[in-house]
Amino acid sequence: MFGALVARVRPCRVRPLARTVQAMKIITFAAGVAVGFIIGSRAGRGAYEDMRRKWRGFAESDTIQNVKGDVKDFAGRAASDVGGKVSETVSKVTDKASAKIDEVTGKGGNDSGPASPAPAV
After folding, report:
1. How far is it, in rounded angstroms, from Cα 80 to Cα 83?
2. Which stretches of the chain score pLDDT less than 50?
3. What is the pLDDT at residue 94?
4. Residue 40 has what pLDDT?
5. pLDDT at 68
């Protein structure tokens, strides 16, 4: 009777142990490094230098430099706009929190003094 109940409660898939997952990640990384090393050593230094020279030519081209400057300017403007909005929001939240604290503690802006409970009759 309890066997059927236990069978229904068990999860349908057993989760692997954290150690096993970590070991699999390490093995996958090591395999990637090994494949990269073998491919790189077969291509040789000449192919590596040729690829590096082409990349530098691409990265230093006028078109890429213009795009890089435009992106940098845009990021600067966006950061400035976001900073201004964050400052405004923080100011509003601070004002609201201060007003709420004053309301709760009875130190409101009215000059009638702190709020006192009604006298018991």
Report:
1. 5
2. 1, 5, 113
3. 92
4. 76
5. 87
Residue-level pLDDT at 92: 92
CA atoms within 13 A on the CB side of 85: 6
> What's the maximum distance between 2 C-alpha atoms anywhere in the chain?
99
Tell me which long-range contacts 107-115 makes (C-beta under 8 A, separation of at least 24): none
The single residue listed with the structure tokens 């009875």 is 106
Kindly list the distances between the CA atom of residue 110 and the CA atoms of 51, 71, 77, 95, 116, in Å, as whole numbers in the listed order.
75, 52, 43, 17, 14
Tokens linked to 68: 């890089």
Distance CA 87, CA 63 (A): 36
Measure Cα distances from 103 to 81, 89, 93, 114 in Å: 33, 21, 15, 10
CB 83 within 8 A of CB 89: no
Two tokens at 54? 């082409």
